[in-house]
Amino acid sequence: MVDYGINFWSDNDFIIEDGQVKINYKTKPAIIDIVKKVREEGYRGPLLLRFPHLIKKQVDKIFTHFETSIKQYHYKGQFKAVFPLKVNQFPNFVLPLVELSQNRCYGLEAGSKAELIIAMAYTNKGSPITVNGFKDKEMISLGFIAANMGHEITLTIEGLNELETIIEVAEEMGKPCPNIGLRIRLHSSGIGIWAKSGGINSKFGLTSTELLEGIRLLEKHKLIEKFTMIHFHIGSQISDISPLKKAMREAGNIYAELRKMGAKNLKSVNIGGGLAVEYTQHEGSPNRNYTLDEFAGDVVFSLKEIAKNKKEPEPDIYIESGRYIAASHALLVAPVLELFSQEYDEKALHLKDKNPQLIEELNELYNTVNEKYAIEYLHDSLDHMESLLTLFDLGYIDLQDRSNTEILVHLIIKKVIKILKHKNHSDIIRIQEQVQERYLLNCSFFQSLPDYWGLEQSFPVMPLDRLNKRPTRSASLWDITCDSDGEIGFDLNKPLFLHDVDVTTEEYFLGFFLVGAYQEVLGMRHNLFTHPTELSVEFEEDGTHSVTNLLEAQTILDVLDDLDYDTKEIERRLKQRIEDSELIDDETRKEVLGQLYVMLSENGYLRTITNGERK
Ligand code: PLP
Q1: Among 527, 551, 575, residue at a domain's last position
Q2: Tens digit of each residue's pLDDT (9 = 90 or more) over 24-48
Q3: Residue closest to 537 by CA, chosen among 12, 25, 20
Q4: Pairing outcome for strands 47-50 and 533-539
Q5: Strand partners, 409
Q6: Which residues approach ligand 1 with their CB closer than 6 A?
Q7: Residue 331's closest CA among 57, 550, 536, 515?
């Protein structure tokens, strides 16, 4: 059976049982059952499912691995962590995160004023807040307000001008002053599509010369005792551990040197994020070459060695990995609306009394194809199709002949795939690239998988059921935006096979896993498709689960309101146009208006398919 590489990417969070994907926790509910139940309540379109227990699992994992390494190496510094809000600021993620990590020294990282407000409101008392990114005087003042609230906050300086502003605000606002961190610009950078954050040409951080100047400024203004942390980040999703090791040596030595220069309260090294998530569905193409064990061990060991050699105390270690914490907690479920070759049905075939010779032959191939000659007939049919299409271009056959050609060839392909589905025939695999089925999904890739659109980052995708049946169709996926970029094409190197289903009579859902990091907030409203309806699946102690935090995707009127349309004016204009129209009789006017109001109050994803069934 095809398992969609679940053992590579799922970390045992999801399993396949009884032909369904199940949440591998407590009573192990099938995801499809949860989806169907929510849909029965009238929620249509794509659904974003959140699993808070997986947030806790990831937080616990990071802490236990670092704490184990700390024990193993008799390391004297502590381990602390912050969640970078930019990875996911949605309340139904952040609030459980904060609640479930109460017993840990786990805080929030902010990169903007709005994120800082979230951090100030929700960070558990005693847990750290770090502030990165460019800051103006207002944002620095917010940091002082946070310190006044009792937060353990560190403002990380990205450039000397920010330090000058801190000095200015400190003079104006007095104590308590937030801790100060300096972001260092390392020569080392990560590897991969997100490696730009590191390296000497990166957007952020102080060069060695600027660091020295920074220390002089801090000393001059008697703020050196507030300088407690150095920070670096070599990029998200580090695929190879070696740049991290190099960065650790570079940062560790900078830490020791700065202490020797008089930064005696410098006691923390913040290693940023970078811990990679395994997204791969295919053997032999892993996204990372290390385990969390190795990652934690390397960080702790290298800092220990440097501290020992330079005779400085072992610093506290901060980590800001967010992708690793958030990715697994969210799953996008998209209903399949249509299979494009479904129209190539025997019922649609209208053979004439007298057909062109090649069409007669195609019909013959279709009726007589068998296992022995399957591949040969397939080749013949593709060959015939080429010739018939040329004949059409030259004006020798008509549109009905062309339609019959397309239908017969698709029928032959389907029959051959069915006959040979248990064999791994290389011809079949090759031919499947040419004869992909296009699955239309009720979602927007721009909104829900923006990293696929922008960076070709793929996410594990699989059907939620029928997993005890062999999928036979090589699949390319289309979303419902009017944009040809809204497509995940079939890739022979990472092939996706799906089931041949008749969606007019049965439901078929695809799940995109590991979409909890970055996708939600980076998602864009192309064609005005908005954040999908979301819900959380929460488990009780006794193992039962319930759906909570159900939040429907925005209504059409709300979407327009967000764009600053005057929605009252829109409603008034629509009503007026219906009233003025001579094409609608008086009896139906009210009905049409009613229909229109219902649509305005629903979300904008698709709801109907051809036979009127609501999707
Ligand atoms: N810290 C900083 C400064 C970052 O720029 C980022 C993101 O690139 C992170 C943390 C989060 O890293 P990750 O995506 O590996 O979780």
Answers
A1: 551
A2: 999 999 999 999 999 999 998 999 9
A3: 25
A4: parallel
A5: none
A6: 84, 87, 132, 197, 233, 236, 272-275, 320-323
A7: 515
Q: Is the pLDDT of residue 427 over 80?
A: no
For 105-154, what is each residue's pLDDT tens digit?
999 999 999 999 999 999 999 999 999 999 999 999 999 999 999 999 99
- HEC string of 453-468 equals HHHCCCCCEEECCCCC
- Tell me the two tokens of residue 360: 């007669």
**Domain boundary residue, one of 433, 451, 478:** 433
Tell me if 28 is assigned to some domain: yes
Based on the domain organization, do 403 and 528 belong to the same domain?
A: no
Instruction: Kindly give the distance from the C-alpha atom of residue 447 to the centroid of ligand 1, in angstroms, as a whole number.
Output: 21
- How far is Cα 520 from Cα 495, in angstroms, rounded to an integer? 26
Q: Say yes or no: 203 and 177 in one domain.
A: yes
State the total domains in the chain: 4
Ligand 1 centroid vs 556 CA: distance in angstroms?
34
Q: How far is residue 447's CA from residue 433's CA, in Å, rounded to a whole number? A: 27
Q: What is the CATH number of the domain that holds 71?
A: 3.20.20.10
Residue nearest to atom 1 of ligand 1 (CA): 272
Q: What is the CATH number of the domain that holds 425?
A: 1.20.58.930
What's the CATH number where 474 sits? 2.40.37.10
Residue 362 placed within a domain? yes
From 58, 86, 115, mutation site for ligand 1 pocket: most ligand atoms within 8 A of C-beta? 86
Nearest CA to ligand 1 atom 8: 236
> What is the whole-number distance in angstroms between the Cα of residue 273 and the centre of ligand 1?
4
Residue 273 lies in a domain: yes
The domain in which residue 357 lies consists of 344-433
Q: Are residue 137 and residue 270 in the same domain, yes or no? A: yes
Residue 19 in tokens = 């032909």
How far away, in angstroms, is 319 Cα from ligand 1 center?
Answer: 9
Active site residue 177: no
Q: Do 321 and 267 form a contact (C-beta atoms < 8 A)?
A: no
Residue 132 alpha carbon, nearest atom of ligand 1: 3
Mention every residue, 6+ apart, whose C-beta is less than 8 A from residue 177. 144, 147, 166, 170, 223, 226
Minimal-distance CA residue to ligand 1 atom 11: 273
For residue 30, give the DSSP letter: B
SS3 422: coil
Mapping DSSP to helix (H, G, I), strand (E, B) and coil, where does residue 51 land?
coil
In a shared domain, residues 302 and 337: no
- Judgement on whether residues 134 and 244 belong to the same structural domain of the protein: yes
Give tens-digit pLDDT for 62-113.
999 999 999 999 999 999 999 999 999 999 999 999 999 999 999 999 999 9
**Banded pLDDT at 60 (limits 50, 70, 90):** very high
Atom of ligand 1 lying closest to residue 274 CA: 15
Nearest residue (CA) to ligand 1, atom 10:
273
For residue 607, being part of any structural domain is answered with no
Cα distance from N-terminal residue to C-terminal residue, the chain: 28
Among residues 22, 88, 58, 49, which one has the least CA distance to residue 548?
49
Same domain, residue pair 375 and 522: no
266 and 405 inside one domain: no
CATH, residue 574: 1.10.287
* Least confident piece of the model among 103-107, 120-124, 178-182, 499-503: 499-503
The least confident of 145-149, 190-194, 448-452, 558-562 is: 190-194
> Among 457, 453, 428, 433, which Cα is nearest to 443's?
453
Same domain, residue pair 164 and 299: yes
